[in-house]
Amino acid sequence: MAKKKYAIGVDMGASFTKMGLVDNDGNLLTSATLTTTAYKTVQDFVAELCMQIQLFAAAAPGEVVGVGLGAPNANFLTGAIDNSANLPWKEHIPLRDLLMEQLEFNVAVTNDAKAAAKGEMLFGNAKGMKNFILITLGTGVGSGIVVNGEIVYGHDGLAGELGHIIAKPNGRPCGCGRRGCLETYTSATGILLTAQKIMLANGLIPFQSSKEITEAAMIGNPIALEVFNQTGKVLGKLLAHVHTVISPEAIIFFGGLANAKDFLLVPTRKAFEEELLFVYKKSMPKLILSGLQDKNAAILGAAAMVL
Amino acid sequence: MAKKKYAIGVDMGASFTKMGLVDNDGNLLTSATLTTTAYKTVQDFVAELCMQIQLFAAAAPGEVVGVGLGAPNANFLTGAIDNSANLPWKEHIPLRDLLMEQLEFNVAVTNDAKAAAKGEMLFGNAKGMKNFILITLGTGVGSGIVVNGEIVYGHDGLAGELGHIIAKPNGRPCGCGRRGCLETYTSATGILLTAQKIMLANGLIPFQSSKEITEAAMIGNPIALEVFNQTGKVLGKLLAHVHTVISPEAIIFFGGLANAKDFLLVPTRKAFEEELLFVYKKSMPKLILSGLQDKNAAILGAAAMVL
After folding, report:
1. Residue to substitute from A84, A92, A181, A277, interface B, most B β-carbons within 10 A
2. Backbone angles phi, psi at A252, to 5 degrees
3. Which pLDDT value is given to residue A192?
4. How many CB atoms sit inside 10 A of residue B213's CB?
5. How far is A236 from chain B, CA to nearest CA, in Å?
6. Averaged pLDDT for residues B39-62
């Protein structure tokens, strides 16, 4: 029997930072949570984080191969965070360097979507796949792409910004300064806006969250179902074009909106298949849900970076 | 000094098949041309091709490492040609198997755009690049994509069909059965159609080829310049979105229309930069011409597959 290896996975978020000790079979052995906003400076935060990492490492029943950290806007190639809209510290944060000053482990830093893709490949529904796209449907829309068995970083670490491909020319205004980005329709905020528009036009009290839309769909609310149809149509149509670039075996949905399961998947698949170029129809890719949705995916994905 | 290696590159086209003996510095030592249409069956064609390959191999001053063949619609993973609109033989052609029955060399078969990308990486303007897109602007529009230093085939060998991403919803009808594909605007046929529409609307005798448009642009013809502006705008805008998928270091233009050089490149770059998501503006990719345009690129690219 091969000896087990261990890694520490860190899911750094604007409000909370979750972390855990993970083995190479994807089991989470122990975990902890830091309140990200409780630290005045990033140095204070890193000091506490490193102390916790050392505690986990000491508790590991075998070799610890490293620390993987996923964070919004973190760049694998530079190991730094820039342009983070939500973190309490606004400066350039050379996170990997800060961690490596205090730790003797191998440290990898990347954005949350790329970490999730790595986790999906090691522990989830992309086991054995060499070419797939994981798309995160959360507050924003991001993606982690795998080609020839490796994460695609691009020359600058910024590959996979699928949320900012234009889905509708001159469509909804986007935080990036342009209009009609995929994210404005298929993020949690985007789908809520779609619902609110329909409901206000019909004199109804609009849903207050994307979760409410899913719950309404579950009891057959026709507006909620229509909202998922419209959202899936935008998503499937755009993904059919993204497909032509790398022709993946699967497109995997992850994040809050993916909890809607078939309410989202069915119309997305329909639009995808209708829009897809004929040459791909013999080798139709699978559109499926993440296998890590309910399993501390972000911590597992971060740990997978170094496992 | 490292010993030189040699490969035989074959550029199989609907009318002619060009082939040559190539060394690992990208020198073409000797070449020959077969008339593809002169053979009643693909077996006859392969027999003649293999005889010619044996002659080249015998003439090589050192080790021959293999045979690379590029052909429209050839699939690297299956080694076969399917759906070829233009070849004289319409059946499924298991080309790699047919060649390997008669040859003792390593044989690689792929489509022409992927072979060109490989050639560009070994001998052209992508030397040392790990992430780039080569886009072929010829009778059709295709692409060869390189990620992490490797050609992207996708799970089915069909990655890189950028010519069939929709550039204009409900736009020009495309041979694939859909409307508005990039290819209908930025192929040799597409640009000619753009020119003819403008000229007929103005009571002028339209250009008869894309080459004529380039020649007219060179002497300052305002319609030809406007046609390149419109074409570059469509191309640059779409490439800005493709860029977000893999974030390449460069996008390289290859094929007939690329001979127009700055007439096409300048408006393409302008539209690309205007449309590009802000996060990429610090690490702006290079939009450049192929380094192999006038150098038997297709033969070199095919040979590069095995070198």
Report:
1. A277
2. -115, 130
3. 96
4. 28
5. 14
6. 95
User: Based on the domain organization, do B284 and B300 belong to the same domain?
Assistant: no
Quickly tell me which residue has 């002497």 as its tokens.
Answer: B219
* Residue numbers in B near A277 (CB within 8 A): 161, 164, 176, 178
Q: What CATH number has the domain bearing residue A29?
A: 3.30.420.40
Q: At what angle do helices B222-246 and B262-275 cross, to 10 degrees?
A: 50
Pair B114, B141 in one domain = no
Residues B202 and B263 in one domain: yes
pLDDT at A85: 72
- Residues with Cβ within 8 Å of B11's Cβ and at least 6 positions away in sequence, in order, are B17, B18, B19, B70, B71, B112, B115, B298, B299, B301, B302
Mean pLDDT (whole number) for B155-174: 96
Can you tell me the mean pLDDT for B184-188?
96
Chain segment B87-132, per-residue pLDDT in tens: 888 889 999 999 999 999 999 999 989 999 999 999 999 999 999 9
Give the domain range for residue A17: 6-118+296-304
pLDDT at B43 over 60: yes
* Token pair 């792409």: residue: A145
Chain B touched by A165 (CB under 8 Å): yes
Contact assignment for B246 to A145 by CB distance below 8 Å: yes
Is the same domain home to B167 and B95? no
Q: Virtual CA dihedral for A139, A145, A150, A152, nearest 10 degrees?
A: -90
Regarding whether A95 and A145 lie in a shared domain, the answer is no
User: Is residue B219 classed exposed, middle or buried when 0-12, 13-18 and 19+ CB atoms within 10 A define those classes?
Assistant: exposed
- Pair of tokens at residue B10: 């074959």
Task: Count how many domains chain B has.
Answer: 2
Cβ pairs A/B, distance under 8 A: 125
Residue A80 and residue A158 in one domain: no
Contact (CB<8Å) B130/A246: no
Whether A60 contacts A6, CB under 8 Å = yes
Q: Is residue A123 part of a domain?
A: no
Give the N- to C-terminal CA distance of chain B in Å, as an integer: 17
Instruction: With respect to residue A1, please indicate whether it lies within any of the assigned structural domains.
Output: no
Could you tell me if A283 lies within 8 Å of chain B, comparing CB atoms?
Answer: yes
Q: Would an 8 Å CB–CB cutoff place B288 in contact with chain A?
A: no
Burial label, A182 (beta-carbon count in 10 A; 0-12, 13-18, 19+)? buried
Tell me how far apart the alpha carbons of residues B241 and A163 are, in angstroms, rounded to a whole number.
10
pTM: 0.94
